[in-house]
Amino acid sequence: MLGGLGISRLPAARPARRAVPCLDEGAIARLSLNENPFGPAPGVIAALEHERPNLCRYTGPELDALLAAIAAREGVPREQIILGEILEPLGTHLSLQGGPGGEFIYSDPGYTALIDAAVAVGGRAVAVPLSPKLENDLPALAARVNERTRAMYLVNPHNPTGIVADADELRNFARNVAHHALVIVDEAYLEFADHFAQRTLTDLVRGGENVIVFRTFAKVYGLAGLDIGYGLVPNAIARTLSAQGANNPHLFNRLAVAAAVASLKDESYVERVSRQVAAERGQWVRLFRELGLRSTPSSANFVFFETGLPHAIFSAALLQQGVAMGHVFPPYDRWARISIGLPNENARARAAVRKSLGRAHA
What we know:
Helix 2 packs parallel to helix 10 (254-265), helix 3 (87-96) packs parallel to helix 4 and helix 11 runs parallel beside helix 13. The chain has helices at 42-51, 62-74, 87-96, 113-120, 138-143, 167-177, 196-199, 202-206, 235-243, 254-265, 269-291, 311-320, 343-357; strands at 29-31, 81-83, 103-108, 124-129, 149-155, 182-186, 211-216, 229-232, 302-306, 323-325, 335-339.
């Protein structure tokens, strides 16, 4: 599930009270992949330095510490935790289970790693357009469930719109659909939203529902370069995946494991980063109002707004001004997704948007 990572030099260990932000790449503000440039939790750097003498060793018992930390955070038995960026392997597994032709329902446009993996081995993608408000259209999604449905896949908050679903509506939707098919909820961006505890669907997993919740350390925890996540999985599926070798320590990079454990130890880190992202997101909202641009009420670490220009033209205009933005999301080819970067990067991006669109929307 996880590839190796080579590190030639790590900074010397030192007491850290603040997150260590990503380096400013200077010429280009890379605001295209929804990374967290504010950097990992302070304890992560020390944890990586501590592991430097152990780079000659395979991962072993260290994995137990991560499983224990996740189990404590989520209130889910360790046996129901499957480590790794599991969406693609999960799509492959579910599609092969029961033979080709199983249907996988998702919101279109959206993040499709799981869907693409399922289709590659014989699954059928069932794309459901977003609602007129650019939200996951829960009634329309539920209406597509039938005897061929293998799984329902949702991202909450949605990517690329950043809209978070109403907590009660989503919970009722998932509970009802789970009677007919597996429901997979990707909560990669949920820590950026308010009222996380009320919004997460981990309670359904704890309650034995046919629901999987996926999380990643690549977003709010700032560990995209170490690429590790986990799924909270129903018992039957967890047993099957474990029998197939999931959670084998040799699959995992010991640096990623150490960084994930250190991230979970810092209970205040997520709140601090979420506040920083929300403050930067608010400045984007003010710009959209100033320019009269339609945008979505994002609760994630990116914004999504209507430019009125073909995506290729607008993205090229921003790149000329040193800003790389997200790819196009058909049929919204006159909309743009821009990730929240460091404050100076966000200021540069807003200036580029104002220069490119200000006159047209004045």
